[in-house]
Design brief:
Two copies of one chain form a homodimer. Chain A contains 27 helices and eight strands. By secondary structure, chain A is an alpha/beta fold. In chain A, helix 7 crosses helix 17. The interface between A and B is large, with 125 and 124 residues.
């Protein structure tokens, strides 16, 4: 038999390599960065704008707070990056926030993080696509004019791509991401050069607009509250930072080290771009209002409902490069592209998290089998559906969507960091080596601060944004949480019910005999084959069973049975109402009644056809019968398929190569499994 | 074993009697009449109006042609009744038009009739309901004001009743039908009495309206054409006459005689009511216009769009009994009720015809298994959907719907009569007995005239109504015809492909050995049971197969396998991508490659749960695996079900008693089968 095992293994590994080469090749840092950073880097496309937007409520004068807010965001960013560098070292198997929280703080915390992440994936799609559309719109007006339509179109496109399992490559991520980063840095550098060295005055298209403050001369608590709100909007820049900690296995060795430094680099890039854009925005006099229609005034009159407020990055680019300049358009395109890539990362993360949750039986078990097309698709469709709903409800307005966004991020930040503190405590309890201990204590300190800070931000976000939409995100989390708890409960109940008792038990005692029954409608190849197979099984009794729904046909059947001299007794059940299922069920039950300790094996010949509509024309009675038989105790139901010519179609369809998207971010499967199982 | 057979038979017949008592009791004539005549009798509720409507095109003056048209309809009615009396005698098994055309004129003719009948059933529902609503509306204005809504509501109601399988009884038909007949006759008698004896002047509500003729002073061909159109509209009175010829088995013995006399009685009632209503309409000066809004003038001004033109029968009743009199309202209600019953007959006829067509493999085979709830429902839903569509498109306007109606009826009349002529010719060729011969020749003469006359009418209907909507009906027929031909072609192709060769052939030669493979995920009751069953089958090799989607779990499985000392070798397939289906398929293929003449029996333990949502949480991988295995040659797929506690729910659901509506019209099943098989 051993030879037998090698065959499929060889085939499998061969196939595996073919079907998923990317998963096998590890990522160098220069590729890993764009692969993982498209989400966090792209967020600088909307985060700065959000800050100005909120400040504008207190009038343009409040803009001078923006550097301080930027500074706060930078500190936060460094804290989070530093913390996650600890995760990366502690969980080389790619311990995502869910695993960290789950192992260290227990299932409830884990499930909370999971719910938060699921909601976040949905929002990543909604926000990134909407913002992408807005950026594209700054170059191509048509797009903004049909915002919702375009946004949904892009989501549909991404969904189809992911459903089809389009193979992604590092370069697909690398090119636009690097173009985007390069573009932004050029803009900052060139802007600084023009402003400081050449001393030309760069004016944003909105520079000579006025803002009618909603609250004149805010001060004291109200002002602090506003600044906090602006800050929490700025925190949008941190979304997606945790991505790398999931993807450690995809890095070249030394994995953790490389991941950590990539993380650091990413943080550095993000904050530089964030600050640079805010600075340029101030320099070029960008004006943004929360509801421009009324609050943005030009030559004394409000701009009105049909005014389109372009993103900060676009306005700045226009000011620095000049409108309609190649660079301006290029940057707009790159920005949009990176944002779409960011959305795409959610399409990879959602099913991956789903499969981990399924492994812990919080979601249907089958989602765990990775690369399973059907299971994968369910996740994709769910994600896309939810995202489209949000985009549609919020008219693809990134500003309003961001209000929902940041809650989930910080829930998982906080819990995962708290989990890390626990993690270090646990290890410190056992660790003797002083050097290691010092290192751990340092890590714990970092994570502790991270937990505290992110926790603080979470509170701020909740307080400042709850009424602005954060409650929707919380509601979503609650729903996910409840559903997953229910599913887990069900699985546990079933597991208990079917748990194998020690030693033989009532329903496991070996039954004494098998009665085989072959269902016959006509005599043709499928039935003859079924009979031949049935004979092979050497059951204690074997008989052919036919239901008399049409006396003429039955007579013909009996006659041919005789003529062919088939050496299996043919029994015919009467069915005055031309039913098939009921007589057979009754008969099987009667057999069981005769000898309760025996088993009845019902053998059903089936045609296998290729097209769904053909399927409608065959096996329907067989299907229903099988369905009912499953409810009858002490029965085995056997299908003997007969492949019709047309089935080749379906076969080819099924054989088609397919690889689950996102493999590039996950790293080689074997390693992942080995390590994750080791860490269990 | 003989004892074994009795058990289910007894159970079955017992069950059968319980579940379908009505089917067992034969109908006396007094019940048979209303059961079968609700459709043809109810048509006098709209037929007379249609005649006047068409005539009105040439102005009120043309009304004086109405008696002649009535006379023509009467002649036609007698011809058709006489012809069908022959069918009834020739086909005691209830040879419907389809069977008659099929057996005597060949499949093409049969299929044409079938298509015509299917279209007709749809129209019976649409027309009867719409007209019913109009009649109800003459008493309850609200109903007409929301015509379409009410009509659809009634269809939905009927559909649900039929889907639920509400048991019908003869009396349900008898009461409204007899009330209706009695009501109409009272109206005619009382009207005649008042008019002739008392000599009071009865005036219909529209008596003092004028009609603006669309064509002034028609003459010559134009006039003839108009009269022909009026006639073919009047033919609506004949719809449903053929019903009895389908239902002969439901009659008390002597079946044919009783059926024939019931048919005659029905014809007599129909014509009397038809003529009576037309006469009264003239006497009371009813005015009806094809489009009343503009052509119906009152005091010099058109009545306008919001004028509701009540059916003739209602206007006459109002004139004779006086508006708001009990009798008037009672008659309106009875009329509506009978019309709804007429629609209900289509709900019985459609699936019945479907099952006959399925038997001839023009429709999916499973529709043949009678009393099969699912198959039955499909028919019902298809019928209801089509009818609702028509009602919605034609705004529940019976006049416009009737334009589509009559084509189908006369297609089947003509073909079935022609078929009968052939039938007699065949028998005359062999028959020697002179008395019998004379009788046959007489029958043939009647059918020949019937065929000629109905054929003539068919031509008239086509010519006069084609542009008015008959083309829609024809289109529907073509679609049904094409679909059924395609299905038949498919079945024939498959039958050819799977035809059993004489003597042993390549794929039927008995394979040499069976390798049994039991799929194992964990060790629990279901898997242990599956193992126990598998052992019983004494296949040549037996092994347990597990797919390693999670090394930790697999290790645990191996350990427990050892611990329990299960005496079946456990093989574990690696699956780097956590797939289940592919590794198993590959493995099975490899087994086959090893020894091509052997069979692989894959045994899959399954949980059986009660609720659909539970089902989503289990067996998904198993299901997909089974699906794929069916495409792999040389495999038997066996499910070993394990019924979880919750499965009881579903079991109870499935056990629920259910009986197919329409049984009352079909007669006892055994007889029907015996006879139909005899007549084959």
């Amino acid at each position: 038999m051993s030879k037998l095992t090698d065959v499929p293994k060889r085939i499998l590994i061969g196939r595996a390599l073919r079907s998923d080469r990317l998963g096998e090749t590890l990522l160098p840092k220069r590729i890993a960065l764009p692969v993982f950073a498209s989400d966090p880097l792209s967020s600088v496309a909307y985060a700065p704008g959000e800050v100005l937007l909120v400040l504008s409520i207190a009038g343009v004068s409040a803009y001078h707070f923006s550097p301080w807010i930027a500074a706060a965001v930078v500190v936060l960013m460094f804290t989070v990056v530093a913390s996650y560098r600890q995760n990366v070292h502690a969980y080389p198997s790619g311990g995502g926030d869910y695993e960290v929280a789950n192992t260290n703080l227990g299932p409830k915390a884990g499930l909370t993080v999971a719910s938060a992440l699921l909601v976040d994936y949905v929002l990543t799609v909604a926000v990134s696509i909407s913002s992408g559309i807005e950026n594209l719109g700054s170059a191509i007006p048509f797009v903004v004019e049909h915002k919702v339509f375009c946004a949904i179109a892009v989501i549909v496109l991404l969904t189809l791509m992911n459903l089809r399992g389009v193979k992604e490559s590092g370069t697909v991520f690398a090119i636009p991401t690097y173009v985007f980063v390069a573009g932004v840095f050029t803009m900052i550098a060139w802007g600084a050069f023009r402003g400081v060295v050449l001393g030309d005055e760069m004016r944003a298209p909105t520079a000579d607009y006025q803002i009618k403050p909603e609250h004149q001369g805010l001060a004291g608590f109200a002002l602090v509250f506003l600044l906090l709100r602006a800050f929490s909007s700025g925190c949008a820049a941190l979304t997606g930072v945790e991505a790398i900690s999931n993807g450690v296995p995809a890095f070249r060795k030394p994995k953790s080290r490389n991941a950590a430094s990539t993380l650091a680099l990413m943080g550095l890039l993000a904050v530089t771009m964030f600050c640079g854009i805010i600075a340029l925005a101030r320099a070029t006099g960008v004006r943004m209002a929360e509801n421009p229609a009324v609050d943005l005034v030009h030559n004394g009159v409000p701009v009105g409902a049909d005014y389109v407020q372009h993103p900060v990055i676009a306005q700045v680019a226009e000011a620095v490069f000049g409108s309609d300049s190649i660079l301006f358009i290029l940057l707009a395109a790159a920005t949009a592209l990176v944002l779409f890539l960011a959305a795409n990362t959610a399409y990879n993360g959602f099913p991956l998290l789903g499969s981990i949750l399924a492994q812990d039986r919080y979601l249907p078990r089958q989602l765990h089998t990775r690369g399973d097309r059907l299971a994968f698709s369910n996740g994709i469709v769910l994600l896309a559906g939810a995202a489209m709903l949000l985009v549609w409800i919020y008219r693809a307005d990134s500003t309003r969507l961001i209000q929902l966004y940041i809650v989930g991020v910080f829930v998982s930040f906080t819990l995962s960091q708290t989990g890390m503190v626990r993690h270090w405590n646990r290890h410190l309890a056992t660790e003797k080596d002083t050097a290691k201990r010092r290192h751990m204590i340092r890590s714990r300190a970092i994570n502790a601060f991270g937990a505290f800070f992110t926790g603080l931000v979470l509170v701020v976000v909740l307080v400042t944004k709850f009424t602005h939409g954060a409650w929707v995100a919380l509601l979503g989390m609650v729903i996910f949480y409840a559903t997953m708890t229910a599913i887990r409960k069900h699985y546990d109940r079933v597991a208990e019910e079917i748990a194998a008792p020690e030693g033989p038990s009532d329903d496991i005692v070996r039954p004494s005999r098998v009665h085989s029954v072959v269902l016959i409608s006509k005599i043709h190849r499928p039935t003859l084959r079924a009979l031949a197979y049935a004979k092979l099984l050497r059951s204690d009794t074997l008989e052919a069973l036919s239901v008399n729904v049409d006396p003429a046909e039955t007579k013909a059947l009996r006659a041919e049975w005789e003529r062919r001299g088939i050496d299996v007794p043919l029994k015919v059940l009467d069915s005055p109402y031309r039913e098939i299922t009921r007589p057979v069920i009754e008969y099987v039950k009667s057999l069981r009644k005769e000898s309760p300790r025996d088993v009845v094996s019902v053998i059903i010949p089936e045609y296998v056809v290729g097209h769904w509509y053909e399927h409608l024309l065959h096996n329907q009675s067989a299907l229903r019968l099988k369905g009912r038989l499953l409810f009858t105790p002490g029965v085995m139901v056997t299908s003997v398929p007969y492949q019709l010519a047309s089935s080749e179609v379906a076969k080819r369809r099924a054989r088609k190569e397919w690889n689950a998207p996102g493999s590039v971010r996950r790293g080689p499967a074997q390693e992942r499994d080995r390590e994750s199982s080791a860490s269990q």
